[in-house]
Write a structure and sequence with these properties.
The complex is a heterodimer of chains A (649) and B (255).
Chain A lengths: L2 H10 L3 H9 L9 E7 L4 H9 L4 H9 L1 E5 L7 H10 L3 H4 L5 E4 L4 E4 L2 E4 L3 E5 L2 E6 L2 E4 L7 H6 L4 E6 L12 E5 L13 E5 L12 E5 L7 E10 L8 E11 L4 E6 L2 E6 L7 E8 L3 E7 L1 E5 L5 E4 L3 E2 L9 E2 L2 H10 L11 H5 L5 H25 L3 E7 L1 H9 L20 H17 L6 E6 L5 E7 L1 H7 L26 E4 L3 E4 L12 H17 L10 E6 H4 L12 E5 L2 E4 L1 H4 L8 E3 L6 E2 L9 E5 L13 H9 L7
Parallel strand pairs in A: 1-23, 1-24, 9-10, 9-23, 11-12, 25-30
Antiparallel strand pairs in A: 2-33, 3-4, 5-8, 6-7, 10-22, 11-20, 13-14, 14-15, 15-16, 17-18, 18-21, 19-20, 24-33, 25-31, 25-32, 26-27, 27-29, 28-29
Chain B lengths: L1 H8 L7 H23 L2 H20 L4 H44 L10 E7 L15 E2 L4 E3 L4 E7 L4 E4 L4 E4 L11 E3 L3 H6 L3 E3 L4 E7 L5 E3 L2 E3 L1 H19 L5
Parallel strand pairs in B: 7-8
Antiparallel strand pairs in B: 1-4, 1-9, 2-4, 3-4, 5-6, 7-9, 10-11
Helix pairs in contact in B: 2-4, 2-6, 3-4
The chains are: A alpha+beta (649), B alpha+beta (255).
Chain lengths: 649, 255
């Protein structure tokens, strides 16, 4: 909002007088400079070049002509949580502690998400079945290190970070800082996004790889399906039962529409239509404690079978059950101005597409909602931006390119079965990001600069590499129970004969004595085993293509010399070649049949490969950028711009 | 009532709705304190307050004598009950205008004007048989979803967006919202009923023939005050209370 508009509104709205007085106390930045940083996850420099050439990204091209365009050195491994942590802390993984999406606890061998954790209370008051927390408990960010913006805040320079990845929960409130958490923010169930699919044809969904739940429902002749929507676990009651609400879906098969009743609210949607955000209230302790959340319904089909999709139940930004912004009113403020929005870190429901719940059209309609919401949020943030640092994050490019790389890759096993209608999806996405760049460029003046950057680029994911199956085939791991190859993680392993195992997208671990639960490799033997593995994996050949699936096997202590590695760090990082990636089974430590197989999942693009293959992009109005910049340096470059070079001194 | 409130709010038609809401709240506060003055036994309340004050003072003076403190405390509790009894009659009388004013404010200030950005839902409850055939297009606003018919309960529902504050769908007897200026009644539905229904639910129009009632779910309105969002009822309660207290001081009303 422009100052004049604000004053006008202040005159008309008595309440705004209070807001005006609060605004008067705001500290202004020292330099008065402005820097808009657009963080576009997965924006590939080669594609940017190509689309600029084709005239699809005119604003980005203009930005490049004003300043510079570079490839931006990414992290190792080039995974978003790792890369954005490098950006935030200006340091490599051994400092910030994020090595992969998935880490494992060596004492239990259980995997966990690397970004944040929920801890139960230290002590509770037990009254019958009631468990009232007395102390401790909460959500903790697992990223360590000092964020670069702390320097700016200390100098009184305003900092706004919207949808910042690896920043959940957000930092403590600062009078100069506004933060809205992005990637890593869970849904209310605590997962990274778990859809619910109500259907009277549950057997049509055979894929059971997670990402959501299939709930069988039935029409008993009155045209009504009673659907139970599960929310979070109720930690106030013994045994943590799941809280749920009942939704009634009344179908009209003639008009192909459904009326969804939930509490006092109702909405009608037709086939292939989305409901607006609906408010869910999960009662933990009657009216005393309620978890507020939001979700959207999508009527996929009504005849011959009933198929109703419900998005992951998101934290309500207007009434957040978990901290998603700092100060806590900021998410509410944004929602009021820009409308409700996905608060979960991974808003595009890629799993629904991978599992066949969505077809390509369904998925794109959902992805479009996400992008429109994000654009609306961007517009809202941009219109109030005054000075200091504004960072805004776009996730759409990354997740949609993951899903539609097949549409522009003739070598993809799914290229032939992908409808040619979708061949322009990726180009269209880049064009829409370019519109945001254009909106930001309207603010350019002699005190304003723009940086457009991405954390990594992209490559095709044509062939899946079953790392653990390879290790077993080559004698680095021993499968004692072949019948359980695809069941529980590591269930089939004989740990007493296993030297190494893979987990996560790039991680390779030594089964080290004294660290792992059933470790056998001594410290003396570890180095030679790692070198053997490096030789073996780097020389492995795909019998189908003749290519080497692994380009580099990075031994962590050589890649990051001089750093003390935390116990959850992998010992090696697998740098896959272009076209290859760890299979989905590998990420959870499974041992499927076959070592290298065609990737038949719509998730057909990847960046979890050797970092030299997929650098990010850096396009900026700033002249005199350093040569060969890396993501790790960007924080100090940003600080330097906003403090007139004081950072460099 | 509708005409009275239209007149009272006429000067605020072109201003932010919060002004009108605050004006009525202030007026209600002052009016209610006057009603309280007229309907309560001011002399008895005054005496009782003095008595309660003296008992409280007595407790402070005789702290070293627990039996005296206990006796005074018991007396204070009893005085409180008597005080509540004195309040009962005026409060019961005030309740009637309070309900009527609240109904009027609910009808005028509780909902956002119907607009193209917000999806609302309406349900029509038919009396004996459901309107058959294609209902056609609305005269104002847009039909977003198909019409869902639930034959067993004689209900029809659909989602819509308004246009310039209204949604008009003559084929189903629906005329929702308001195109009038700020502070006018926004129609949210229809029902059958007499004068009582009209007074208590001014947001409902008279249901057309063959229709039992029409209900709509439209966007609730919040007001930004002191950095937080307030519903219309909170604004009304707070501002009418503030003005009632001010009125009590100005008009020397013993409360």
């Amino acid at each position: 909002m422009k100052r004049r508009d604000f004053l006008k509104k202040a005159i008309l709205t008595p309440a705004a007088i209070a807001a005006l007085s609060a605004g008067c106390g705001k500290t202004t930045g020292r330099s008065g400079k402005r820097l808009i940083v657009l963080g576009v996850d997965g924006m590939d420099p080669s594609l940017v070049e190509s689309f600029m050439e084709r005239g699809l990204m005119p604003n980005t091209r203009r930005l490049k002509e004003m300043g510079s365009f570079n490839r931006l050195g990414t992290s190792n491994p080039p995974q978003s949580p790792v890369a954005w942590s490098n950006f935030i802390t200006g340091a490599p993984p051994p400092v910030h502690g994020i090595f992969d999406f998935i880490h494992r606890d060596p004492a239990t061998m259980m995997p966990y998400l690397s970004i944040s954790e929920v801890t139960p209370p230290d002590s509770t008051l037990n009254l019958g079945k009631l468990r009232l927390p007395l102390s401790g408990g909460g959500v903790n960010l697992l990223r360590r290190g000092t964020p670069f913006w702390d320097t700016l805040l200390d100098k009184g320079i305003p900092v706004t970070m919207v949808k910042l990845p690896v920043d959940f929960p957000p930092p403590a409130a600062n009078k100069n800082g506004l933060f809205l958490s992005g990637l890593g923010t869970p849904d209310v169930r605590g997962s990274q996004g778990s859809f619910t699919f109500f259907t009277d044809d549950p057997r049509s969904i055979s894929d059971n790889t997670g990402g959501g739940v299939i709930i069988p429902v039935r029409d008993y002749g009155d045209g009504c399906y009673t659907c139970r929507v599960d929310g979070p676990a109720n930690s106030l009651i013994e045994g943590n039962p799941v809280m749920s609400v009942e939704v009634k879906a009344w179908v009209d098969r003639e008009s192909k529409a459904v009326r969804i009743d939930m509490g006092d609210a109702s909405v009608v949607i037709g086939e292939k239509q989305w409901s607006p955000w609906m408010h869910f209230s999960f009662s933990a302790l009657g009216p005393i404690s309620t978890v507020h959340a939001i979700g959207r319904f999508y009527l996929k089909e009504i005849t011959p079978k009933f198929k109703l999709y419900l998005s992951p139940i998101n934290i309500d930004p207007e009434n957040p059950a978990l901290p998603i912004s700092s100060p806590d009113w900021y998410s509410r403020d944004l929602a009021e101005d820009a409308g409700l929005f996905y608060t979960q870190g991974f808003p595009e429901d890629t799993k629904a597409l991978s599992r066949g719940i969505f077809d390509d059209d369904d998925y794109l309609s959902q992805a479009n909602i996400v992008l429109e919401e994000r654009m609306s949020l961007f517009h809202s943030v941009l219109s109030r931006y005054q000075e200091g640092l504004l960072f805004f994050y776009f996730t759409s490019l990354d997740l949609n390119v993951h899903m539609f790389y097949r549409s522009m890759d003739p070598a993809s096993p799914l290229y032939g079965t992908t409808d040619p209608r979708f061949s322009g999806v990726i180009a269209d996405l880049y064009s829409r990001i370019d519109i945001a760049v254009g909106q930001a460029m309207e603010l350019l003046d002699d005190r304003t600069e723009i940086i457009l950057l991405s954390d990594h680029g992209f490559a095709p994911f044509r062939r899946s590499f079953n790392l653990n199956s390879y290790l077993a085939a080559e004698g680095f791991a021993d499968i004692s129970s072949p019948y359980e190859r695809n069941n529980d993680m590591f269930a089939c392993l004989d740990w007493s004969k296993t030297g190494a195992y893979g987990l996560g997208l790039n991680g390779l671990y030594i089964n080290q004595a004294g660290r792992e639960k059933n470790g056998i490799v001594t410290a003396d033997d570890k180095r030679s085993l790692m070198e053997n593995l490096k030789t073996s994996l780097e020389s492995a050949v795909d019998p189908l293509t003749g290519d080497k699936p692994v380009k580099n096997l990075f031994i962590l202590e050589d890649t990051y010399p001089g750093y003390q590695m935390p116990p959850w760090a992998p010992d090696m990082l697998v740098g896959y070649s272009r076209g290859y990636r760890a299979s989905w089974e590998t990420t959870l430590g499974a041992f499927p049949e076959g070592v290298i197989t065609d990737n038949m999942d719509p998730w057909s693009g990847t960046h979890c490969i050797s970092p030299d293959i997929c650098p990010g992009s850096l396009i900026t109005s700033v002249r005199n950028m350093p040569e060969n910049p890396t993501l790790t340096e960007m924080g100090s470059i940003i600080n330097s711009i906003l403090t007139d070079g004081e950072e460099d001194q | 009532m509708n005409t009275l409130f239209d007149l009272l709010l006429k000067p605020f038609q072109s201003l932010d709705p919060l002004w009108g809401l605050m004006w009525i709240s202030a007026l209600s506060g002052v009016m209610m304190i006057q009603v309280f003055k007229k309907t309560s036994d001011q002399q008895a309340i005054s005496m009782l307050r003095r008595k309660m004050g003296s008992r409280a003072l007595g407790m402070l003076l005789f702290l070293e004598s627990p039996p005296t403190v206990l006796k005074l405390a018991f007396g204070l509790i009893m005085d409180n009950f008597i005080y509540l009894w004195h309040l009962l009659k005026p409060m019961l009388i005030i309740t009637i205008p309070f309900i009527l004013i609240a109904a009027q404010l609910d009808a005028r200030y509780s909902r956002e004007p119907l607009n193209a950005d917000y999806l609302s839902t309406v349900t029509v409850y038919w009396e004996s048989s459901i309107l058959s055939g294609e209902p056609g297009e609305p005269e104002a606003g847009t039909l977003i979803s198909p019409v869902v018919t639930i034959a067993d309960s004689l209900e029809q529902s659909f989602s819509f967006t308004g246009s310039n504050g209204v949604f008009v769908f003559g084929a189903m007897g629906i005329d929702l919202g308001s195109s009038e200026p700020t502070g006018s009644i926004m129609i949210r539905g229809a029902e059958k009923g007499g004068i009582v229904q009209t007074l208590l639910h001014p947001w409902n129009m008279e249901a057309p023939a063959d229709i039992v009632k029409i209900e709509s779910f439209t966007q609730e309105k919040n007001y930004h005050i002191f950095g937080s969002r307030w519903g219309w009822f909170t604004v009304f309660l707070v501002f009418s209370s503030v003005w009632a207290i001010l009125g009590a001081v100005i008009f020397k009303v013993k409360v």
